[in-house]
Amino acid sequence: MDDDDVGGGGDASPQHQGDGAVVAERGGSGALVPRDVASSPTSSRSVTETVNGSHRFVIQGYSLAKGMGVGKHIASETFTVGGYQWAIYFYPDGKNPEDNSAYVSVFIALASEGTDVRALFELTLQDQSGRGKHKVHSHFDRSLESGPYTLKYRGSMWGYKRFFRRTALETSDFLKDDCLKINCTVGVVTSTMDYSRPHSLEVPDSDIGYHFGTLLDSQEGADIIFSVAGQKFHAHKLVLAARSSFLDLNFLILNQMKRRMSLTQVTKSERLSSMTWSQKCLRFAVLHFMYRDNLVSDEELSASSSDCSIFDTLAGKLLAAADKYELPRLRVLCESYLCKQISVNSVATTLALADQHHAMELKSVCLKFAAENLSAVIRTEGFSYLKDNCPSLQSEILRTVAGCEEECSSGGKSQSVWGQISDGGDTSGRRVRPRV
Which of the 8 DSSP states describes residue 431? Predict the structure, then answer.
């Protein structure tokens, strides 16, 4: 028996190695972004595999089909695999005129519209003796050097012109009761891209501050009372301890006291312990932060700023409270607010406030502002306050001035900032004492 694998398709690139699937991967991870926050890594995976389907074609009355002519075929009903229509063509007298009807031919044809359809095929002539010795031609169980077969267009076929010699077929166990049974399997090659696509959903702002604020307002479950100017304010030790390590330690001390005191004494102690503030607004502002994680409104902050020193403003007292009760986020929020309020008249006292309460970012901004506006700052009451109370800060201002001068020396400035510290000097530099 001679078998010739014949078809009208073109060559295909090697992508398949016998099992019907090719998997290739490529991936990459994103670069670090500011604040050392890494962007989410992305990846993709190309998956090439086969969509398989089978069809059984029974040819009843084989002897009557003989003699219909070379190149004439009996077609099976069409069947669908991988989104395409297929059909089995059986040629009783063969497809090739040169064989003089010595062979039967069997082909699988693309019966629907398609371009460059790549597929694997298997043709099985069934042994009807029950011994299972079927005649199998398959792409699925062997390596294909040129890859899957490509059918260029509708009507393209793959199969064998010399599928079986007729004389051998007619005396074999494949033909029984003038009937042949052919099983066909088609595996259509498909490629898909599987990748992680960054989907975006709008996430609402956190509302935990709102809910904790509601807890503060309702006083539900409150277990500690603060007294300010005769007015009592209820709060929750667990919340305060979670926000402030200072208060956490104080509450620990109170718990130790409970072991040595009666319940009445402890209750009285808790009512008078911890925060003792002279201003109701300060109590409200600190508790507002602890529960809501933000500052009170700008209107409330600025209400106390017009007629008092920076130390007596609500923002200044909040900064002091943040330092005392170890509330680093409150300190940063206060620093940010006070930075926006810096002026020639306020910078010196703001600098003293920042230094006193370890607000290093605010202090740095004040030093730079004072150095850049030195001639005006040295005439303010705040600068006199530094001279009398914080002389070391005056020295820090002058060191900052020196640093600013070095940075600006290559910029072509005609006026030395040191020249601004002169008797009767002004910002225009018309009267400047020469440097010695």
Answer: S
The set of residues, in sequence order, having a beta carbon less than 8 Å from that of 123 and lying 6+ positions away, is 106, 108, 136, 137, 138, 159, 160, 163, 182, 183, 184
Residues 151/7/20/79 CA torsion (nearest 10 deg):
60
Q: Mutual orientation of helices 391-408 and 347-356 as an angle, nearest 10°? A: 110
Decide if pLDDT at 155 tops 90.
Answer: yes
Residue with token string 């402890």: 266
The rounded Cα 236 to chain-centroid distance in angstroms is 37
**Nearest by Cα to 376 from 322, 428, 327:** 428
CA 136 – CA 138 distance, rounded (Å) = 6
Q: How far apart are CA 172 and CA 371, in angstroms?
A: 108
Could you tell me the CA-to-CA distances from 245 to 36, 215, 325 in Å, in that order? 27, 21, 7
Is the model more confident about 300 or about 60? 60
Q: φ, ψ for residue 286 (rounded to 5)?
A: -70, -45
348 neighbors 380 (Cβ within 8 angstroms) = yes
| DSSP labels, 69-134 | -TT--EEPPPEEETTEEEEEEEETT-S-GGGTT-EEEEEEEE-S--SSEEEEEEEEEPPTTSS---
d(CA 164, CA 177): 18
**What is the amino acid identity at position 202?**
E
Contact criterion met (CB below 8 Å) for 59 and 179: yes
Q: Tokens representing 427?
A: 């910002």
- Rounded to an integer, what distance in angstroms lies between the CA atom of residue 30 and that of residue 101? 66
231-276 pLDDT, tens per residue?
Answer: 777 888 888 888 888 877 777 766 666 665 544 444 444 443 444 4
Could you tell me the sign of the dihedral formed by the alpha carbons of 76, 91, 187, 8, in that order? negative
Write the CA distances from 205 to 210, 213, 292, 334, 413, integer angstroms. 11, 15, 13, 22, 48
So what's the pLDDT on residue 39? 66
Is the pTM value of this prediction over 0.90? Answer: no
- pLDDT tens track for 301-357: 887 666 678 888 889 999 998 998 889 999 999 999 999 999 999 999 999 999 999
**Contacts for 242 with CB less than 8 Å, ≥ 6 apart:** 248
